[in-house]
Structures are given as structure tokens and as C-alpha cells.
Amino acid sequence: MTKDYSSRKLERKQRRCEAIIHTDVGIESSEKPTCFLAILNAGLSTGLTEESVLSNAIQYAPVQQVIMLPNKSYCFLKCDNVNNAERIYNHMHGRAGLEQRGGVVYLSYFKSLPICKEENIWTKPLPEGLVLLPDFLTESEENMLLKAINIEDVEQSDLKHRRVKHFGYQFIYGENNVDPTKPLNEKIPNECDILWPLLKTEMTKLGLPTWDWDVPDQLTVNIYEPGQGIPPHVDTHSAFLDPIFSLSLFGDVVMDFRRGSDRQPLKLLRRSMLVMSGASRYDWTHGITPRTLDVVPSETGLTVMPRQKRISLTFRRLRRGPCDCTFPTLCDSRINAQSNLCPVITDVIAAQLEEKNVHSVYDCIAPHFSETRHTPWPRVAEFLRSFQTGSVLLDIGCGNGKYLQCNNNALTIGCDRSSGLINACLERAKIISETSTNLPNAFRCDCLHVPVRSQAVDGCISIAVIHHLATAERRLAAIREMARLLRPGGRALIYVWAKDQRANDNKKSAYLLQNKALNKNKTTVEQQRQCAAAEVQQQQTEQFEPLIPGAPQLPVHTNRTDFMQQDVLVPWKLKGASVANKDANNSAPSSTYLRYYHVFESGELEAMLAQVPDVELVQSYYDQGNHCVIFERRQK
Amino acid sequence: MRLSTYNFLTSKAIKGVKVGFPLKLTIAKQDVVESEFNPTFIERLLPRLDWSGIRLAAEVAGLNDDIPAELPANVAENEELLKKLHHLLLEIDVLEGQLECPETGRVFPITDGIPNMLLNEDEV
Ligand SMILES: C[S@@+](CC[C@H](N)C(=O)[O-])C[C@H]1O[C@@H](n2cnc3c(N)ncnc32)[C@H](O)[C@@H]1O
Ligand SMILES: [Zn+2]
Predict the structure, then answer these.
(1) In what residue span(s) does the Fe2OG dioxygenase domain sit (chain A) (predicted)?
(2) Which of A285, A508, A532, B26 is the most core-located residue (most Cβ within 10 A)?
């Protein structure tokens, strides 16, 4: 009896999960066994990793593919035949041991897999300009180089971070650059001279172009213990010429290359040489995920490769002068030139633009805006909850304060420029906690001048705020201000709207999915754009006269469509005209307000962060149509 | 504004101001909002606070006698002091009043519990 009851209950649970998956990604479960399995109750959002699913499943049968979707509590496996899928199902379904927490996992068969861009990441051609030369050195050459770089004296600082040693010039992490006027006494060891003729021969054999400068003059040695990694980054354009050479010694690893929503892993075997040139050097980031197992292809599908200690030698040639590449997105020279030379919009005009198209708009729409913003985004809440008891957290641009109550063991303080929204904070808090024991701490200020002591907070967040600043300098200044507030070791989280609203497997973000008219095929994007443009143009002439002298004419974005350019005005429609009339001291009866946005390209936030001294990028990701970074203020 | 928040505020962003801390606090109207006492929280929070700011807050709130001139070393075992700090820092809510820059005299009003720290463009 009881067994029956509990198995019925379990079945209901399974059906519920299957229904969720069906709604989320549109695929159907199957009663009959198929090649496609879903783990229904464990996924990225429950802390499961690709390598742990895989290492578990391949004990029972070969696996062709693992699909883990961001923020989901389920994941998928693909086998090359039904027998193998059945074997995995029989060994894993209803058993514990997959997750660290030891919970039981449930599996179901599906008729297909979710459509996923990353289907064949291992067979895609390498990023342009990337060349991998396996078995570049012999074992005795490897030994000779290891001896020459003599890493015995590099002290073990802490277990979390890789160790480094520099030759030729010091790489200064605080500035992400080298000082060409301060060469080190210790030059690149002569033993490395064998590499360059060898490399030129190999490249010429493959019909590949070599380089037009002499030999590298800077060497960074990185010592990775198993589990250690390096955050995704691009080697500072203005610091080094093209190409960059990276020699792997001692152990194997998987390196991830990323550009926009593209991700491409590359297996770097011991004694291989990697040449990064062109797009792969300038336009793709590279990094190593901190973990102890790597997922790699095998003869039967996928398998895991345990990490060993690995020593990498990165050889570079200093550039003297600004970068002249043709890849603007991650180019520090280009970003600096833009903010210095571009006279189109001055600080004063930017401030006026923000006043008109950000601050006064938020004040007008505050009550309505606040009504629509209640649920904290899970990953922001998770970040806030990661701080210990007694921490001090600051939410800069807190709006109606929806993040102020996420971590009750911390002192959370909010600030915002809009008095309308700060008042909404208090209103909201009164509604949530009837006893009003937890009234929010909030004050009014601008995010460029936060009136808080330096190095005073353990954590700060800026969620959907910096994209409202109208010049690159001001956006950078806002990030610098966050860095100033952090204690050494403190961490900050930034969310900004992404220009690309479809990153992540080409799944549309919630923002685009909410385009109801389009979803029901009632209209096309083009029609929507034309309509909206006409409507807004009319209002613009009424509402926004006189235009700010010297301000650029900005295009008006059509809501819930892809962004056409980076600097845009985004309409906010107020439904009840009564609300608008109450607050607007503007005589126009209009109820559409235009908010200024600078939507970010992928990598843009990381490139800005690289210019902030004393901080290190910890993680960058894409969430709900936003580009996001977590950074840490360096200890010392 | 709770007095724990007060402990972090500075007017240093004003052009020419060197320290801008602690701000001169005036309380015109306050509320006392009872909240749950968590000794670990207060104890861990203390190293993040500025003691001179705590002292000044106590003075203005009329709780001078509750707070010693210097932070005692063994504060973790002194539950009574932790309770007093809890009350001062987390239960007193300043509803109306002002903050004043100690160097320039610039006044930041507190209205409905919200300090307005916004500066004009020509002040920064
Ligand atoms: C899209 S809302 C986000 C609010 C909140 N962080 C959230 O996630 O719900 C943007 C907020 O940024 C604030 N803001 C815009 N420009 C600002 C500035 N220069 N300084 C401070 N806050 C600003 C606005 O008042 C508004 O509350
Ligand atoms: Zn460049």
C-alpha cells in the first residue's frame, strides 16, 4: 500500500517535471525508451556540473552529449543507441550519489533534445587565427625548459589561485599591463631560443603566416594545481603584439574560448604549442574553468579527464604605442580613444540627457515601475546570500529596493538617484513586513558620487543602472566608484542590458518572449517598428521640446525586438493616464516616456573592468538578457 | 535612516573636502523600531564600523552613557554592550533631521527617513 502510494507520488512528480520541461524548451517525454534522457531534478541551478553528470553516467554506458541549460534544475544526456540509454536509466533513476548533497535523481526518456547551438562544439573549426601544434616538444626538451624556468622559488600564496612568475617584464595585474620602462633583470631564459625557429618551420609547413617581429621579450609562467583556473580574459591589446604563444607543460587542460554567445573548448595537451593570432588573440576571450575534471571527446562520445598540475609558458612581445587591430570590441586602445576623442557628447550634455531621459522619467513612472518589479533575479539573490553574517552590502541604484531583504544576516543599504523610487522602497517594505521591523536603509545619491567611506563594504551590486549613463567615461567612473567602496577581498556584481537579447543558445530572453503580439503572429517586427516609430516621433516633438542643445538625436527602440544600435531611447508606456497626470508637471497629456539606454556588447563590460585598478574579474555571464560580471578587490 | 547607515556616510565627494567624516547629525524626529537581537551579527559588524561615528551617534541620540569612549577588547563576551549597540545602531530610525559636512557646512536634509545626499554638479 504505502509503496504504491509513494510510487504514485513519485510518478506525479515526474510528470510535473516533464511538463515544466515541455513548457520551457518544447520537447516531449516518451514512455518508450529513446536515446534521449533527461535528469528531471538536477541541473546547473541545483549545483550539478557537466563533468559530474558525465563521469557518473559513463560508468554504465557511453554518452554522446550532455546539455546543461543555464538556471535550470534539469539536464539532458544523449546516447548513440537505446540500449545504452536504458542502461544509464536503470542505473541512475531513483538512486542517490550524483549530487554532492546525495539527493535521489529521477530520469525520463524524451522524444528529442532541446535545440541547442552547442551541439557539436568539439567539431567546429577553431576560432580564426588559432593554431594548436600538438607534440611540439619532446619530453627531454620539456624537462630542459622546466629546469630553465626554475619554478622552485615561486612561493605558494594560497590554494585558490594559480602561481605566476614573470621574465623580461613584470605583468602588473592591477593595471592589466606592463611597464615598458621597467625591464626585469631576469630575461627569458636562453633555453627558450630553440622554440622560435622550430615554430617558424612548423607554421610554414602548414602554410600559415608567421610574425613580422623578432622574438618574444616577455614570459609569464603560470602554475596551475588541479582545480585552479583563470577567468576569461583577452590579453590587453595595447600591451602586447600579435600573435601570442602559449606552451603547455607537465599536464593537460581544457581551455575555453568565448566570443559573444559562442563558446568553444579546446583540449591543450602536455607539450603542445598554442598560437593565438588575429581574431582569436583580439576578439575572443580565453580562460580555464576552475574544476578538477574536464569534459572531453572520446572514441565513444564524451568522457572526463582529471586535471593534473599544469605549467603554462605564455610568450609575448611588448607593443609600444596604441593597438591598431581591427577588433574594436575588446580593444582598450579603441575604448580609450573613443572616450578621449569623441567630442559628440560632453559630460555636461550627458548629465542633461540623463536628467531628462533617465531621472525625471523614473520619477514619473516610479509607482508603476515599482509595481512591475517584485521578484528578485535568482542569481542576484544568490550573490547577496553568499556573504557572511555581519557583512555590509550596498545596492547602488536600488530602485524600489527589491534586493534589500535578500540576506538578513547582512547589513544591506540601498541608494538611488530617484526619490520617487526610494519612497517606493519604503512603501514596499511596509507591505512586505507588516511588523515593519526590517525597514530598509536607503538614501538618495548619484552612482557617480556615492557618499560612503572608501573600502567600507563587503559587497556591492549595481543592477540595471550603469546602462543609463550616457558616456563610456561615466560608465567607467561608476565602476571605479564601486571598486573604491569595496574592502580588499570584497566582491561586486554588475548587470547591464545586453544589445544581444538572444545570447545563450539562441533562446530568446524573457524580454523578447514577452512580445505577445509577435508570438501570436499577429504582426511582424517591421510593422511593430514602423508603428512605434511613428507614435513616438509624434510624442517626441510634443514631450521633449526643447531638445538638449548638442545632444545627439537618438533612435527610439521598439520594445521587445532586437536592439539596432547601442545608444537608444526605450519607451515606457504608462497605462492609466491618471498616474501620469498626477506626477507630470509637464502639460503634455502623453503617457509614453523615453528612457536612455546604452546597451552593452558582449565583452564590453569585461574590457571596461580591465581598466579599473586593483580589481580582478571573478566571473562573467549572461543572464536574462543582461551582461553580468562579478569582480573582486585585490587583497593587500 | 538607521544609525548604522549613518556610520558609513561621508561628504568627501564635495570638491575640496578632505575627510568629510563623521557628518554632524541633528535629529528632529525619530522612531524606535524594535528588532530581533542577534549578538553574532552585531559582533561581526563592529569591525566594519567607525567607532568615532558610533560615539557621535550615541551622543546625538542621548545614549552617551551606554557607549564607552573606546571599543573594549572583549566585546564578544559583553552581551550587555552588544545589546546597547544593537539598540543604537539598528533600532533608532531618524525620520527628520539633517547631516552636515564637517568641513564645508553643506547640509543634507533627512526627510521621511531618507537622507538626500545628492550633490549639485558644481559641488563635485
Ligand atoms: C532599471 S532600474 C533598476 C532598479 C533595481 N536595481 C532593480 O534591479 O530593480 C534603474 C535604476 O537606476 C537608477 N539610476 C539611474 N541613473 C542613476 C544614477 N546616475 N545614480 C543612481 N541611480 C541611478 C534609477 O533611478 C532606477 O532606480
Ligand atoms: Zn586592439
Answers:
(1) 215-319
(2) A285
One domain for residues A539 and A495: no
Q: How many other C-beta atoms lie within 10 A of the C-beta of residue A277? A: 21
* Mutation site, A359, A393, A398, A411, interface B, largest B CB count within 10 A: A411
Ligand nearest to the backbone CA of A325: 2
Interface ipTM above 0.85? yes
Last residue of a domain, one of A53, A84, A117: A117
Q: Verify that A160 and A301 share a domain, yes or no.
A: yes
How far is the centre of ligand 1, averaged over its atoms, from the C-alpha of A551 (Å)? 22
Say if residue A159 is in the same domain as residue A40: no
User: Of ligand 1's atoms, which has the minimum distance to the CA of residue A373?
Assistant: 9
Which set of grid coordinates corresponds to residue A204?
610554414
Whether residue A416 has its Cβ less than 6 Å from ligand 1: yes
Nearest-CA neighbor of A106 among A2, A23, A20, A1?
A: A20
Grid cell 510510487 in the structure block, residue: A7
Q: Which residues of B touch A423 (CB under 8 A)?
A: 112, 114
Which of A66, A100, A117 delimits the end of a domain?
A117
Q: What is the pLDDT of residues A119-140, one digit of tens each?
A: 577 888 899 999 999 999 999 9
Judge if pTM exceeds 0.90: no
Residue in A373, A432, A434 with CA at minimum distance from that of residue A405 = A432
Prior bond to B22 cis, omega within 30? yes
Residues A224 and A280 in one domain: yes
Which class does domain B3-111 fall in? mainly beta
- Report helix, strand or coil for A372: coil
